[in-house]
Amino acid sequence: MFGLFKVANLETIDSPQVAELLRKKGLKVLDVRTNGEWKMGNIAGSVNIDITGSDFADKIGKLNKATPYLIYCRSGVKSMSAARYMSKLGFEEMYNLKGGFMAYSGKQY
Q1: Catalytic residue among 60, 70, 73, 80
Q2: Quick check: 48 pLDDT over 90?
């Protein structure tokens, strides 16, 4: 499915891989859902930058491109869009959560 949306420097991972990845030093977790969705539940330590917000490009542009990012949304579609944009800006290492927060939230990792 995501083959059509190949993004440089991006690896799609599933929920069981998240716990292992979260132990990676320097990894930042980026939630691109709305603030309301984020407040209803999120991955601990995540930063919320709403992909639909008018300030999305400005906020993403201020992030360190050398930092590795785990990016997620509700189902994995908007996070792919965010990753495509971030790739164009030169972000070096990104991970997309397959199935998004819906796939992750019901699991015990």
Answers
A1: 73
A2: yes
